[in-house]
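Reopening this one. Same input as before:
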Amino acid sequence: MATTLVKTDFNFPGQTAVYHGKVRDVYTINDDYLVMIATDRISAFDVILPEGIPYKGQVLNQIAAYFLDASAAIVPNWKVAVPDPMVTVGVKAEGAFSADNFIITRIADEDAVAAFDIVSLAIRDATERVNEMGSPYSDGWD
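Same output, byte for byte:
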């Protein structure tokens, strides 16, 4: 049976914080970057089970990276690199809903219809981009 990664305990240069979630471990570097590691841990009803599922972290991280890439032209995101199938490195947001290159703002009620149209177009565009990129399960996907 394949080995699973259910725990990390890294000490990166410039590390200022670490958060161990139910599935992901997030390391903060110089308060500027996040190193997010998707582990093979399983969580059910807020309980972390003792054994992981082999390759679960890789699949989870690669799917997230795929869709971050597919939607980046529509909405800039935090992703900088995927140096390992289980790891994503990105920019730490300045606030709850902002990052260096974009800010998500609150939309007034009277603009709800316009906002719906914008979101619908964004979803349609993202779907087209994903279709152009192909499936993450095809032979040519990185």
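So the earlier flakiness isn't reproducible anymore. For the record, The chain has two helices and nine strands.
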